[in-house]
Amino acid sequence: MGALELAGEFQTIKLLAEIVAFATLTSAVVLAYSLRDVLAGYVDRRTLKGVFLGIFIFWLGYLENVFNDLYKTELTKVLDDILVAVGMTIIVVTAFQMRKQIRAVKPKVVTKGPSFLKPGAYITGLVAPSMILPLLQGRQLLAITRHPKPYEEHGIPYIWISNVPAENAVRPTELAPLLHKVLSSADGNTFIIVDGLEYLILNNGFEPVMKFLMNLKDNLLTRNAGMVVIVDPKTLDDRQMNMLMREFERLPLQKP
User: Fold this and answer.
1) First vs last Cα of the chain: how many Å apart?
2) Which letter does DSSP use for residue 73 in this model?
3) What are phi and psi of 123, to 5 degrees?
4) Where are the beta strands (DSSP E) in 105-205?
5) What is the CB-side half-sphere exposure of residue 78 using CA atoms within 13 A?
6) What CATH number did the domain enclosing 185 receive?
7) Contacts of residue 2, Cβ cutoff 8 Å, sequence gap at least 6
8) In angstroms, how far apart are the furthest CA atoms of the chain?
9) Which domain of life is it from (predicted)?
């Protein structure tokens, strides 16, 4: 077998290997795209779009690599490397953003002592954190709030409901990532304070927020944990308030 024939066979094998690799990559991309709704439960959609943009550019680079073996030009010699490099850069940058969003805000014990509140789901009108803390001594606390300053003053970890990009912030429309952040570190000694219900309802409507609360409640109760919902009754109609009162016990603000 001559050198030219041997080189031709190696070229054919190389092309077949690249086609198989490209087909495998395409299948992986299709699979990842089919899971986009699941992934949206952990990161916001803007970040997710960035990840898929990077994946798509990387995929184009690999496609160009296959064409480069069939129709080689001066442009195609470098275009595939450029596309792959750009795609990988976008994927890495957005992966760091995803890591920041997925990272949990951990609850912590703020005041020591015996807790006067058994695990469960409670509701109360507008109250300051200082009114709730005496009932939750010894409990690990985490607040979901539109107004973080009062919680900062008492040393309570919080997730800020805001459209402003920040490490502890979750957009009000991203209820699934919010649920993930809360549950990722909640254990049997945890109480979640939900203070910002009106803002969530304003951005999502009552029904989706009610489903979010039910999901949070059910998950916490299975862990023998608890939650306190703070809401202004004047912002809800009678039907909405009655639905909440059926699911949540009125918070006893006085120690037993």
Assistant:
1) 94
2) -
3) -140, 145
4) 108-109, 121-124, 140-145, 158-161, 169-170, 190-195
5) 2
6) 3.40.50.300
7) none
8) 95
9) Archaea
Same domain, 126 and 177: yes
Please give the residue range of the domain that contains residue 232: 108-250
Mean of per-residue pLDDT scores for the chain? 84
Angstrom distance (rounded) from CA 102 to CA 188: 21
Same domain, 120 and 225: yes
Please choose, from the candidates 164, 157, 161, 40, the residue with its C-alpha nearest in 3D space to the C-alpha of residue 104: 157
Question: What span, in angstroms and rounded, lies between the C-alpha atoms of 122 and 143?
Answer: 14
C-alpha triplet 14, 17, 19: angle, nearest 5°: 110
The answer to whether 193 and 174 have CB atoms below 8 angstroms apart is no
Sign of the torsion formed by the C-alpha atoms of 253, 122, 127 and 241: negative
Best CA proximity match to 148, nearest among 202, 213, 212, 196: 196
Per-residue pLDDT at 256 exceeds 50: no
Rounded distance, CA 100 to CA 43, Å? 9
| Residue with token string 């809800």 | 236
Residue type (1 letter), 117: L
Q: What is the mean pLDDT of residues 130-150?
A: 92
For residue 3, what pLDDT is reported? Answer: 53
pLDDT at site 145: 94
DSSP annotation string for 202-239: HHH-HHHHHHHHHHHHHHHHHTT-EEEEE--GGGS-HH
Helix, strand or coil for residue 108? Answer: strand
Question: Which 3 state secondary structure label does DSSP give 78?
Answer: helix
Angle between helices 206-222 and 175-183 (to 10 degrees): 20
Same domain, yes or no, for 92 and 159?
no
DSSP letter, residue 107: P
